[in-house]
Records
---
Amino acid sequence: MTAPPRGLTAQAFGGLAFLAIVMGVMLFGAAGTFHYLAAGQFLVLFLGCSLAITLYLLKHDPDLLARRVKAGPVAEQRPLQRLIQAMASAAFLALIAVPGLDRRFGWTNLGAPLVVLGDAAVVAGFLIVFLAFRENSFASAVIEVGAAQKVIDTGPYARVRHPMYAGALLLVAGIPPALGSLWGLLAFIPLAAVIVWRLLDEEAFLTEQLPGYAAYRRQTRYRLIPHVW
């Protein structure tokens, strides 16, 4: 186990704090009230899971955490991925804001069982992402091929080629119901489309740049869901 790079802890926790502020402002600002129990529950779950994964990586794989904190459109090296990441960021903010607006104007009011189901999907999505991180220390937040990088075909990568994206899709699909909103699912559609666009471009890049990835694609047929796609 290597020591965390200098400044990594501050960078990681600073990023989490910034994310918490942005999500809180977007969600409660759109709702126009702090009396929004489902939102409070969701933020505790989302940020708690994010914190748990951050702490795990700090202790067990600080190099991966360093790759993960280097994220966003400006971190991408290729113009197409800068565009994709910018669109993904906007779509994620919409996914948070629309349920807040739903709460403000009372468009829908999902019952507690569906809210809990949404919370469960968020936690399950984080778990899948964590399993992908634990298996693949090269899971950078930007599309690149690092030094000594190799194809990972074990653990969840033996079932699908993109378990991290599969977990992310389940996570974001759970956000609208976790926030008590049906209309928020409309905001999920463009975000899901952007994630699929990103993984397809990533596959083309890795096939060209990472030795053995073309063979891995032939060996592991499914991208996101076993026996489906």
---
Amino acid sequence: MDGAPTGVTTKAMLGLAQLVVVIALALFIPAGTVRFIDGWIFLAVFSASSFAITRYLMKNDPKLLERRTQAGPVAEKEPRQKLIQSLAGIAFLSTLIVPALDRRFRWSDVPTAAVIGGDAVVALGFLAILFVFKANTFTSSIIEVAPGQRVIETGPYATVRHPMYSGALVMFIGVPLALGSYVGLLTFVPFAAVIVWRLLDEERFLANHLAGYAEYRRKTRYRLIPHVW
């Protein structure tokens, strides 16, 4: 690979910088202080993990990086997915804002070991997503079928049909703990519900538009969690 074109690299880095700013605002404004150590550590873990994956894609799969820069409700082509992505954005912000409010009003008393464990789980979720990117260059941020796209059945896709969503759920179960909040764990429920809605709609789309996906769906039984669902 020759690396990502300058325009794609710039767009990816600007997008990452904007995301980090949004996360920082969602943490420190509701917390009412910048003296939120758990928030700073989480922000560092999230930023470093995101940057590492972005750098990997810049060097090894610029086409996938380009696909990943087209994200959000506006980029989606189907009205239902525009709604789902909007709700996903709200659910994502809630996983940050509720723990930040918890920090402000001292609702939870989470031990340091659990906070460290939460950061480790967040990093683990990112690692799982990296493995997905290595296995499947067609993991666009929006639901579409790219020219030349084929069904991927190897790597994590041999175990579950939506390993990237599995990684995301792992990550976001760790976020509230990383931010020192037990109350924030409640936000995992709506976040998971939106993920499930999205993947079910994605399966409907792929079964109709991607050759071989219906057969893959019959062969690979589990969607998110092996031996569960």
---
Amino acid sequence: MLNGKSIMLRVARLDECIALLKNEQGISLRTYQTDRRTQGLVERCFQVAIECCTDIAGHVVAGLGLERPAHRKDLFRILGQAGYLDPDLAATMVQMVQLRNRLVHLYWDIEPERMHHYLHHDVVFLERFRAFALGLIEAQKKPEP
């Protein structure tokens, strides 16, 4: 059984991060490279959004009684192998966890060009994972025949 309330709290925070990231998508690479405030906002929003996704994935894996992960990135692999997540989305979310780790542990070595690319191309994956989470919650609400 999934804890819908706990998942929805994280979806709400994920929504905030996605909205902030989408708001920054109009910034040019040139401006992004010199705007430390925007860089900090984008990096933090990606970090928190990915944390929300891994927390949700953890709740789902536990709630469905799936294999216990060795590492946080394994949550998405497990969901993909069990058929809950599209394999491409699962693989991308594993990479997102690696981005989160880089933001947290190698914060001094973040390339603005790479983050600008993520800002313009990877927010959609956060949105897709959000849709997946909401779909599970909705499916759980439906009575079984």
